[in-house]
Amino acid sequence: MASLAEQYRALRDRRQAGDPPDFEALLRRFYTGFLKPGDTAIDVGAFKGKHTFPIAAAIAGPGAALHAIEPNPDMAAGLRARIAADPALSFVMLHECAAAAENGIAEFIIAVETPGYSGLRQRDYDQPDVTTRRIGVHTVRLDWLLPHLPGLAYIKLDIEGGEFDALRGAQGLLDRHRPAISFEFGRRAYGAYGVDPAAVFDWFEARRYALFDIIGNPLRVKDRFLRADRLPGVFDFLAVPAENRNLLRLAQAQQDPPLTT
Fold it and tell me: What percent of the chain is predicted at pLDDT more than 70?
């Protein structure tokens, strides 16, 4: 197997050649590998439903529940209409709020031209002259919003740097249910929240979660995690309970063969 450095070099080469790996497909492959009918999941940063609806398809069945969190009113309106139009999505519950470390009301910055970069803090944008619009939103701790879930198989987080705050607001859910987690992580976005990247690794380690990058490399030591964060284009990471051997195998099985040649 190629070393971490060799795999990341291959990623950079593919990106520069205009053939970047489909990281969204890798993420779908991960969660569809273990979700089953009747499971409960949370999609934090549902946006236009890129992962909301594949997650829903994976868990559809008696007892299923999918909680979609989306504070951007335009995105929430689109999700609400699609859910209402399909009776098969009756188990998908939309919460128009922002997941955070504390309950309250906060300013939410919408990046008009690139709404996927919207968030509770204004991050560095990849393109110049981005127009912003500021609105007020409710912030909620997931522990407060969903205190009585009978189970929880998976949490997906993609909220432009606010992921660590959302996780800290969900500590009770993690402790009780030990779900698999996928989360975006990058210094440019996390810096707007004053998050020390090393603290993210320490937080997961204290809770006995094993970390992987989206292509399946184990990030067992802090330095390896911090180096992975520096690779342009790799923003998705996986966190799985260290005691769950099936999830550990799935996370490591993300290896994409073309990356290792």
Answer: 92
